[in-house]
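name: query_chain
kind: protein
chains: 1
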Amino acid sequence: MSRQGKVSDFVAPPINPTSHQKFALSVFFAHKVPMLSRVMSAAVTGIDAYAVEVEVNCGYGETFIVLVGLPDAAVKESKERVSTAMSSSGYKFPMGKSTINLAPADVKKEGPSFDLPIALGMLAASEQIETDMLDHFIAVGELALTGGVGPVGNLPTRHPRHSQAKFPSFQAVKAISDQS
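structure:
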């Protein structure tokens, strides 16, 4: 005996959620929306300083970090330093996929000086810090595993003609370090 019927016999009836269920779904998905942050940084090539935009997108899914924008080995290692420094400082490491873009993408990024802007971007994207002032400053610094900020050689701030001259729209271009 063959079983035959209409397609509608095999399709589940449409779900009409109540207003309470709609609210619960909206709250659930509101926390799953990926957040994007932007932190400005800088680097030096020879004697010239140039701006580097660090964009961080904290999404959802399996927890891992993607770092793009021609990072060298020291910049790639910042993923481990940043995650340990964040947890050592009492912050939560964002769960889900985090994409970090270092722009401009066609210039190689070298050294550990991007640790601090990456950490600030991850904290801002995961809404753990206020982001009002991030657009007015340039962040450059190496993070210790304890969460401290270490000095970085060849900072744009060490060259007075590069600091405010190259970055006039920023309130401050200043080196901050636990050892200073």
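note: The domain at 35-166 is CATH 3.30.230.10 (Ribosomal Protein S5; domain 2).
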